[in-house]
Amino acid sequence: MKSSASAILFAVAASALLSSARPTSDKRLFGSDTANDMNDVLSGNAACKDVAVIFARGTFDSGNMGVWVGPQFQTALQSQISSLAFQGVDASAYPATLDSYLAEEGSDSGSASLAATVTNYASACPDSALIISGWSQGALVAHKGLALLAPEVQAKVAALTVFGDPHNLFSTDGIPDGVALHSECFGGTTLDPLCSTLPTDFKFPTSISDITGPFRSLPSLASGVSETAAAVSLVARFPGQLIKSAGAFFDDVTDTSKIQRLLLSPQHFMYGNSGLTTSAATFVAGLPAVAGK
């Protein structure tokens, strides 16, 4: 049974965050958060590209590729690969909610949508090198989507490229043979708890406000108008998402083996502003299946 003390802490934290943030729904503030290059090819509006990348955004992110990592990764890839199709996972199939992160361990419908897009593209463009990618919950969607592919389609996937990947907190499953893995994760003094091995002296949160509190600083760390607007919206939406996901949330809070899944930090949102998307793009461009195009 959930304790009344935990419920009170949850309510206080949610109330405090709601009162300290102003949500925004103006899509103009988010800039380019959508990419549909693979869809354009599949609809006959563009020719096949040598390399196709499908990207799953993280929880709360907007559009179909978000603003925190997707656009930066797209730009970095475009600077190194001339014939590129970049695609975000369908937002209608993958709303990127906290509920799907906690209860489904990465959106089931988002994973299915990713797999369907990759399968259709592989059929339409059999000579293209395919890359599956994701950040945060999107990394879970990328793993699950890759696993859903038929073996003959998996064989066309050159790499799984992930950022802030919490996969090891949910599963011990590996990736198919022949698929290269590139994972970017902050470590050391700026570690990202969702993907790092925690030091023995790591201070775990002792209340719900310890988990939600760090988000208040996110707007000050954002880069540019798009990220700042997204950060303000995130701070405002987080309590409501927690309320909606209360069952799974409290299950994780009261299970010490799962609490690491909830350790979202400001660092987790900095992959697009740290040069790591460029490192990942360099890895992709150097893959034999890509470099040979």
From TrEMBL:
Entry annotated with the keyword Zinc: no
EC class: hydrolase
An example molecular function term from Gene Ontology annotations: cutinase activity
Enzyme nomenclature, EC number: 3.1.1.74
Reactions that this protein is recorded to catalyse: cutin + H2O = cutin monomers
One example of a Gene Ontology biological process annotation: carbohydrate catabolic process
Keyword Signal: yes
Keywords: Disulfide bond, Hydrolase, Signal
Top-rank taxon: Eukaryota
InterPro entries per UniProt: AB_hydrolase_fold, Cutinase/axe, Cutinase_monf
A GO CC term attached to the entry: extracellular region
Signal peptide annotation: 1-21
Disulfide bridges in this chain: 48-125
Family that this chain belongs to: Belongs to the cutinase family.
Protein name as annotated: cutinase
Protein's organism: Mycena rosella (Pink bonnet)
